[in-house]
Records
---
Amino acid sequence: MKKRGFIGPLGDDIPSIFPIVLGIVIFMGTIVYANGAYNARNADLHLRKTALELSYMATEKGTLSTQDFRDLCDKSFKPYASHAGTNFAIVFKRHCSKIDLFNKNPFYSNYSGNAGLCTNAAFKSPLINSTPSMTPDVGTAIADEVKDAVVLNYPIAVNCPEENSATLGLGVINVIVWQK
Amino acid sequence: MRGQAAIFDGIMFLMLVSFSMAMVFTFLNTYGIAQDNVIRSSHTLNYMQSVMKSIYLIDASTLAQADSNAGDCTKGDCQNETGVYGEDMNCSQLASWQVSVGDVVKKDLVDGRLDDKFGTQGAEAPGKTALRCLFREVMKPFRQAGYNYFVEVLTPNKYKPLQQFQEEAGDSYRMDVAKKTYPRPWITDSSTITGDAGYIANTGDIHGCDDPRINATSLLAVSTPFRVQPPGKDDAAYDDPAALEPYANPVGAGRPTGVINPLGYQLRVCVWPA
């Protein structure tokens, strides 16, 4: 006996297959997107926490000499960044009389002829930490090698006007962290 | 009938998927916000700690060049901020003060006033100028990031701001005195402070971290104890009734006889998005 409109046990469900497949595709797409966004946000939080930890180490005493900075670089900054699996650059700038924020290349450390750069990254372009101002060439080089960096700046007391002076003046620590 | 039921199943499944997606996106929207806020607050607190440390460490004489009109634009150093801090911050008067900013501020605060002098005889103690010049420099990164700041000294009794033109600190902060020395008497970069008139009671400019005109939902204030040793028992300041404010001389007239306790001030810095 033939049932009217019956096209088989599977055939009868064919109309529902399209919304079900569509739903599965959308659901899977959502999961993939959510996973990517979740990982990206975690990575961002991890970078910022790493930058914060490094800045805690750098600003703990409130003052730094060049020798202190080198010691911290070898004993604290590099091991911590290595453990965290990130690239970093900490730039120690002695300004002394007034803080010059218009020295726009954040990687340039040779301010006042005596300061420090601590990094675990090998820059391909020598422009990055040797050119004081943010010229287009420097900007391009930094953009090529440093992706989505977290930058934190802190004031710090430094020996002024010379490295071996007893008085302390104005200095700045730039903490820059980015993904490997 | 079966076909309709199957389509209904499919639509129900799509609705279930939509609900799941909504939950996933809701999670994504809220995930990390709390951590983000904590990290931002931690950064701000660490910055404020660095600033407070710099008060105790940085030599006041090194701030002599940190004036609002400092910088030479022709050499790529455009740091002229007279529009924010006024024409002259008098930072140059700090050149001879080879002690920390904290020491200068303490010397200024011994008499219970933050007014650049000790007592009423005009003994120089440019604590307020030193604070203004220091904050002008150390808050640059924060200001460039789009924040305003305010610094105030509080007394422990009800934590009353010393800068307000009222009650016990009123005489030392008369408008003419403030105008004479500071075109803009407050230690702040708030752009809402305009002109040379300074603070006008009730209708004036922002006068403290508690000012309701500051967007309080995004204001972060950090306070730190700032203890100042008052003059010794034999100091001549006790002979002049007007030399010390009541808070700095709780004994009143005459010289103290018992133990002199340190004056427990608080330094409060607040920042908020411009």
---
Amino acid sequence: MLLGPGVVQLDFHTSILLAVVLLVLSIAFGVGQFLRRQTETTVNSAMVQAFNLRVQTWWMMFAILAVSLLIPFRAATVLLFFLVSFWALREYITLTPTRAGDHRALFWVFFAFTPLQYILVGLGREYYDQYSIVLPVYGFFFVSARVALSGDHKRFLERTAKIQAGLFVCVYALSYAPALLDLQLVDSHAMASETDVNNSPPGAESPEGSTDLESARGNWQGKPAGILFFLILIVQMGDVFQYGWGKLLGRRIIAPTINSNKTWEGFVGGVLSSALLGTLLTLLFQVTPFNVWQAALMSMVTTIMGYAGSLTMSAIKRDRGVKDYGTLVEGHPGILDRIDSICFAAPVFFHLTRAFFSR
Amino acid sequence: MQRLTPAPSRGAVNMRGITTTALSLVAKALSGATTRWIDCHPDTCQRVYFANHTSHLDALVVWASLPAEVRNLTRPVAARDYWDRGFVRRHLAKSFNALLIDRTNIKVHQSPIDLMLHEAGDVHSYIVFPEGGRNPEGEIGEFKSGLYYLGKKRPDWELVPVYIDNLNRVLPRGEFLPVPLLSCITFGPPIWLEPGEPKTSFLSRARSAVLRLKEA
């Protein structure tokens, strides 16, 4: 499973979509560079700088993802996400006050639990029972007990909860993204007809007539890389849509004390735009087994979860009094700032796909 | 932008060169160190980098944060009682060309300062930790007088303050397994001993030069 011979992760449709995304980003990069050369009076230079930084990050993100998906082994993509998790956790713990008594627990969190989660994900869907509980249950017990063993009881619950939250968001949640690659997807159209068969009263004529159930639940012909790509694209574009609608129409700020950029108008606009984008992607590229309305619903759920993720991480940053994760130096956004929405969206997206679109 | 004198061309790539490069890469990866130069540039002129001391990794990471040309000429000054114990530490100390100082048995005629001046010649720079020991709470203790005597005997050396942030959490006192958090090494503008400046006021000025980088 892990090293299935000759298993190409990308199919034709996903490759085309990937190429389109990289092309669009390259054009955006060019436009950004052009704007940067304009005189200060005609364009808002701070905004252009932010735009350029974003585009560069996305270009890197999608290029690295594309390379990892081009490697015909799922392990490459799992390894990529492991590295991202590891770095994000590093940023998170760096900005979280810990005490000397937490040191050994942290060592095992970094060097045992984080790799273990990704090894289990890499082993594939047979290990779902293991990778879905190892961190929330055993990781939870270990961190509490190891910190207790150090003998330092000062603010005990607060300290352990912080480490557990970091492990949960940065490692556990994100690991569901590469876990998508090992789902055995079924075709949604076939599944819909199967539902029709089941719902029809016995004896009544079903639309498919005497459809054989086994062939109705036929495997989806595409590759799971498509849905991973769909997830990441929708989450990232959802952020952009929210930002755009917020700038255009934003009046009512959702949580002024946490993030003044997030408005109800931006939220609604973002969710609806993502639904539209998901629909378009399905119509044009067929990278997922979803049909049109399923793609729209999945996009909406994904965007809402992504939104919850970035709001949560904003709240933590506010509490720490920093603007970005990243380095200890002010003004350098880190990996965690870029993936906070993916972290919250990935498990929900995975569970929905697993429940309704896989066998 | 950076004022760097080109490195003397070395013939073949030697083993020590590979070891030191690998060592500095590992140190940087493990400590996730960001390096900042504030009102100061990397230079191969003779300098004393003086830093707050928080962890056994300090000397290694500050040394690794320097550009290769500067690094090759810079020697951390470290405690013999720690770095001379065991094969690994001794080998490490040799790889980053540390000058080991005996803290426990200081002789009057051969003081650490004399040794440093003698070993430096007109080439080498040093990394020193004037607090003498590690400060577990992350605060900066009072400086010992070595820096003053170095500044007095070699007024041509630049004394560069360095602030080490967060390394005490990567490898705290009494631990031997590191936690790979992110740290930050800040190099500040050089200071010199003013003519006739008293020892105590110079040392407190040097200490506040390091402290100022914490806020920068």
---
Amino acid sequence: MSTATKHEAHASNEHPAHSAHVSYLKDGWSIWSWLFTVDHKRIGIMYLVMLTIFFGVGGALAGLVRTNLLSPTGLIMDNDTYNKTFTAHGVVMLFLFLIPSIPGVMGNFFVPIMIGAKDMAFPKLNIASWYVWMVGASFAVFALLTGGIDTGWTLYPPYSSRSSHSNVVPGVFGVFITGFSGIMTGLNIIVTMHRMRAPGMTWGRLPLFCWAMYATSLIQLLATPVLAIALTLLMVETGSNALGMPIGIFDPALDGDPLLFQHLFWFYSHPAVYIMILPAMGMVSELLTCFSRKNIFGYTAVAWSSVGIAIVGFLVWAHHMFVAGISYYAALLFSLLSMFVAVPSAIKIFNWTATLYRGAISFQAPMIFALGFLVLFTVGGLTGIPLATLGSDLHLHDTYFVVAHFHFVMVGGMVLGYLGALHYWWPKMFGVMYSDFWSRIGAIMICVGYVTTFTPQFWLGYHGMPRRYPNYPAEFQYLNVLSTAGYSIQAAAFLLIHTYLIASFFTGKKAGPNPWGATGLEWVAESPPITHNFEATPKVVCGPYEYSLNMTQTGEKADVR
Amino acid sequence: MSANEGALKHHFEDIEQQRGAERLGMWMFLATEVLFFGGVFLAYTVYRIWYPKEWAAASGQLNVLVAGINTVLLLTSSLTITFAIRAAQLGNRKALMNLLAITGILGAGFMCFKAYEYNQDYEEGLVPFCKNFGKELVHDPDDHSKALSTFNDQWEKKGIAPQRIRLFMTFYFIMTGIHGLHIIIGIGAIFYLWYRAYMGWITADRYVGVEVTSLYWHLVDAIWLFLMPLLYLAGPHHGLHF
């Protein structure tokens, strides 16, 4: 220990000659300086580029699905193609966009800056996670392009292993590999938050986004391996069928148990919903305080409710299987446990509402996204209650009610959080401001588009339209057309958002270090930050949301506008 | 200027922070490994409860002597890698290299025995992915006429469902296969450490690489301690032989 203390004295005069004052964007211009980078900020940007592409692909596939549903008999494709299209939409959106989105982009870019570190704890592991993710994504895209998968993203055997003549094995292998990438990122974030915090950055002073990322990373670490083993068993079974030596790990005809796969699958895939929503919740905590110029209400409650959601999220997986044949008592227990998720979620919603109360609210784009999140997530959360209730789930299971519910949570919740984060931190990431007017229009269009798309689906589901069917009775047509119209609004909004964000590189005015007058540590750094984030290790003197004192975490004046 | 200067990576403030990060990182990784194997242990347990008779019959066909020898090899290798940490901390390069080499060789010995065992399983027609499954002529310990018969015939006589034996053997190959993959990765890591020690790169202040590798090695060892009774001791064996 004495050598360590002695060493601390030397720590401050490291790298005196390093190009410490160059922004991370200007620290090397070649393609190799990006592909071989270990800078967490560049890795975040690399994730951003790929995620934007996959989001576009997933969105276009959703467009195909919605277009086909314009007609009760399927407008543009045959039933088999329809199956493959909605499966591709699910796989791309979940595994290639939603799960890596905020952890990959904002987690990588901002967690080290927000805790005052120079980089992630394991920079090489960090860039490896991007490459691993790209390899997995390549397998998945290969599977989807060369024949597709027709099982739905849930890949239930024995259909997927025995009957489906589609590209199950390469697709599953791709998902299997992307899982390792998530584990790497999660591990990095947890170790970074434990070991790399700047002096004074106690756990009680961590930004709520970091708390949410911590809870997310815990889920990624503990749930993803279970999916990996479930997918391994599925690949073995599917492969054995292809070889003509069938083994029935999950096939009841060969004494296997299909429910076992569902248990293992949902043990990951239900917590995965919280991998998607928790970072967005953390983001909303940042946005609501900043744009209402108020300290967060109930910091401790909001922070621990993230961990609470992560823990309870592990105990509710079987509510996806109420009608699959689990025992009555198991269903009863899982129904009750599912209700418990409402408690930490409600804690968050009420604390956010209390934060807004009598705040000086300004409706800039990030705030519109955050408020949209608040409304849409609440709708998505509340419609989860009839699904967690055994009696009503019998009626609503596998209908469009479920589709609407989880799109409200994942898309209305997660995507709005992601867009809010992108708009909030865009000036920090690239040093430029986007158009204030068009961004507000874009944010409002997104919210309107979501509500128009998914609200009719509650009616459709309640009246019995099953999910994943290409055909429906003619009296459902007007609701389906309305839903597709909502999709068009969203598509236009996304085009608009991409247009003004890209335009900001060329025409946007330069953003100072702190364009929003926010208090977090990331706003003390330059915009865009230098390669080592801070000129000197920052000393943290207060909590992350001292808006009443107008003070950043290093004790400087936050809003000088 | 202490020797720590060289061991410290640029983004850490001091060497203890760096060591702590590396240790915590490995512990976190081990947690994911436990969950990874936990999933397949769960699946195994479900079917063991459902099909106890087949599980006992199939387990009895495995080579418990080889598995026992392998257990001894792995446990010994865990001991030697723990001594290697001490050697690294003391800067005793010679002892470090010897201990790492012994650990790696013990691991390689484990894999050799495993390969022998897999080959034996194939020859007896116990590999569920192969066309000869259950069709090879083998000795039936319950049949005192000493005549050779196929497993399929023996199972039929005892009222055992062959697809459930296939299920057990599938779990056997998946579990030992994934475990074997971990052993191979571990051997690679240990020989990389040996190379670094050989080049003189593992000085006393850089012992933590040996420590985290040993953590990984202990976990792989511990998993074997669960695999061994679950797979090999689930049913009665008829004598110990190669």
